[in-house]
């Protein structure tokens, strides 16, 4: 099966999984990335090694028409980690599908991984579904569910999703898509989770240690935000312990080199990897 891939490195393993299943790529649609949290250098390098055409601008109907003119209708549009809604593929491609990092219909939306950790889900998953007119609402083609740990972090959950997505691509999608397509199942009612805000990322030291550290784990290297006195910092890593004390929650009670200990409701949080918020961002943190 020929396929055009729309995505970035986030779920780039889907591209490799389809190659493992014997599919033939014809084009890469990707987007500009900031190189901090969003990356596409791996998938772009892979496409260049295969001499594929690469498009950074948003997919328009004329782009799909051009693929139809070159390849007929015997190709699939595969989306994984692409932010824009894609229309106009029906009648021009044999298949249009998206891989989403949630157990749909739960967790529709741009990036549900943070909340999966924050809300202490015991299981999570990755879902392949038909491209529809609404984000993440199409009929389900395949799904893989896996367990989450009570100490799950953003990074471990991300790795689990990436590995599951590649398995889906190399297995049920890459080797059995026509049958999966015929047996696809409607999602029914679900939930849409909007993009996380800076308020979602902000640590509240009036809370207990477990709640504070869960938020740190939920955002991981994407970083939470904390106030230290009059300054704000990005926090990538922290530990903590329970201990009775008389300090005001949020007070800095100890410093050693780059480690800072902050009082919380029922103990202390030690910030072990953090960086100051640049002055240009201090008024509107939006990383």
UniProtKB/TrEMBL annotation:
<dbReference type="Pfam" id="PF00551">
    <property type="entry name" value="Formyl_trans_N"/>
</dbReference>
<dbReference type="InterPro" id="IPR002376">
    <property type="entry name" value="Formyl_transf_N"/>
</dbReference>
<dbReference type="GO" id="GO:0016740">
    <property type="term" value="F:transferase activity"/>
</dbReference>
<dbReference type="InterPro" id="IPR005793">
    <property type="entry name" value="Formyl_trans_C"/>
</dbReference>
<keyword id="KW-0808">Transferase</keyword>
<dbReference type="InterPro" id="IPR036477">
    <property type="entry name" value="Formyl_transf_N_sf"/>
</dbReference>
<protein>
    <submittedName>
        <fullName>Formyl transferase</fullName>
    </submittedName>
</protein>
<feature type="domain" description="Formyl transferase C-terminal">
    <location>
        <begin position="197"/>
        <end position="273"/>
    </location>
</feature>
<dbReference type="Pfam" id="PF02911">
    <property type="entry name" value="Formyl_trans_C"/>
</dbReference>
<dbReference type="InterPro" id="IPR011034">
    <property type="entry name" value="Formyl_transferase-like_C_sf"/>
</dbReference>
<feature type="domain" description="Formyl transferase N-terminal">
    <location>
        <begin position="60"/>
        <end position="164"/>
    </location>
</feature>
């Amino acid at each position: 099966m020929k396929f055009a891939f729309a995505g970035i490195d986030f779920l780039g393993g889907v591209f490799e999984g389809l190659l493992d299943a014997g599919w033939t790529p014809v084009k890469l649609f990707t987007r500009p990335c900031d190189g901090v949290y969003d990356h596409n250098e791996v998938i772009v390098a892979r496409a260049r090694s295969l001499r594929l055409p690469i498009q950074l601008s948003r997919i328009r109907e004329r782009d799909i028409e051009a693929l139809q003119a070159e390849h007929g209708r015997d190709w699939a549009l595969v989306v994984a980690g692409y932010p824009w809604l894609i229309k106009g593929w029906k009648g021009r491609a044999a298949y249009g599908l998206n891989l989403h990092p949630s157990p749909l219909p739960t967790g529709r939306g741009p990036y549900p991984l943070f909340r999966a950790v924050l809300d202490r889900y015991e299981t999570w998953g990755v879902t392949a579904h038909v491209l529809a007119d609404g984000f993440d609402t199409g009929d389900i083609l395949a799904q893989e569910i896996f367990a989450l740990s009570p100490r799950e972090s953003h990074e471990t959950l991300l790795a689990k999703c990436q590995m599951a997505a590649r398995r889906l691509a190399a297995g049920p999608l890459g080797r059995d898509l026509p049958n999966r397509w015929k047996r696809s199942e409607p999602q029914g009612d679900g939930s849409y989770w909007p993009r996380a805000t800076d308020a979602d990322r902000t640590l509240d030291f009036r809370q207990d240690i477990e709640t504070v550290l869960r938020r740190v784990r939920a955002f991981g290297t994407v970083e939470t935000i904390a106030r230290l006195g009059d300054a704000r910092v990005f926090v990538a890593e922290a530990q903590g312990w329970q201990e009775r004390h008389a300090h005001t929650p949020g007070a800095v009670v100890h410093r050693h080199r780059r480690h800072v200990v902050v009082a919380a409701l029922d103990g202390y949080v030690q910030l072990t990897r953090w960086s100051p918020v640049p002055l240009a961002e201090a008024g509107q943190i939006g990383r």
